[in-house]
């Protein structure tokens, strides 16, 4: 007789508990990706990202080699950690990261950003192509 517990394929409770633990561990290690809307107009691209619960000072935007990177961190305040017992926690905390390939159509130096009520808005102006001028060449 063995005193070791057998792993039963039909142990539904264990199946669900193990699945939730693996999902929670993978979420803790992976940066969160904010939801975004991207629109194109005649003269610029508009990127809007939802960042609820993030302070403006915790948002960092970088452009390097045509890649725009948005980084932020959503932290839980100390009061939330110590008061009472958590019954359900659906809000996620941690690092936020999202990158966008701007390509060659965007003037990187003129990108503008604003942050109002948890929504980050970026305007990336398109490169204005100048029409080739025709000029007469004198023959000497």
Q: How do you describe this structure in short?
A:
The chain is of the alpha+beta class and 140 residues long. The chain is built from 2 helices and 7 strands; from the N terminus they run αββββαβββ.
CATH class of the domain at 31-79 and 92-125: Mainly Beta
Given as residue ranges, the uncertain stretches (5+ residues, pLDDT < 50) are: 1-5
Fill in the CATH topology of the domain at 31-79 and 92-125.
Immunoglobulin-like
Give the tally of β-strands.
7
CATH architecture tag of the domain at 31-79 and 92-125: Sandwich
The pLDDT mean sits at 79
Number of helices, where a helix is a run of at least 4 consecutive DSSP H or I residues: 2
The main sheet orders its strands as 1-2-7-6
Characterize the biggest β-sheet: 4 strands, antiparallel
Structural class: alpha+beta
* Fraction in helix: 10-25%
Order of helices and strands: HEEEEHEEE
Give a topology summary:
Elements: H1 12-29, E1 36-40, E2 44-50, E3 60-64, E4 67-74, H2 78-82, E5 94-101, E6 112-116, E7 119-125
Antiparallel strand pairs: 1-2, 2-7, 3-4, 4-5, 6-7
Report on the structure:
The protein has helices spanning 12-29, 78-82; strands at residues 36-40, 44-50, 60-64, 67-74, 94-101, 112-116, 119-125. The protein is an alpha+beta fold and 140 residues long. It is rod-shaped. The longest helix is centred in the N-terminal third of the chain and has 18 residues, at 12-29. It has two helices and seven strands; from the N terminus they run αββββαβββ. Mean pLDDT is 79; it is low at 1-5.
């Amino acid at each position: 007789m063995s005193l070791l517990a057998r792993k039963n394929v039909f142990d539904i409770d264990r199946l669900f508990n193990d699945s939730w633990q693996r999902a929670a561990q993978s979420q803790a290690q992976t940066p969160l990706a904010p939801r975004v809307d991207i629109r194109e107009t005649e003269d610029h691209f508009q990127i809007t990202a939802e960042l609820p619960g993030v302070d403006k000072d915790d948002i960092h935007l970088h452009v390097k080699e045509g890649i725009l990177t948005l980084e932020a961190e959503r932290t839980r305040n100390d009061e939330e950690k110590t008061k009472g017992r958590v019954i359900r926690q659906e809000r996620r905390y941690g690092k936020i990261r999202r990158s966008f390939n701007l390509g060659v159509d965007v003037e990187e130096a003129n990108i503008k950003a604003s942050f109002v009520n948890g929504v980050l808005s970026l305007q990336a102006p398109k490169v204005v192509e100048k029409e080739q001028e025709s000029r007469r060449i004198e023959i000497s």
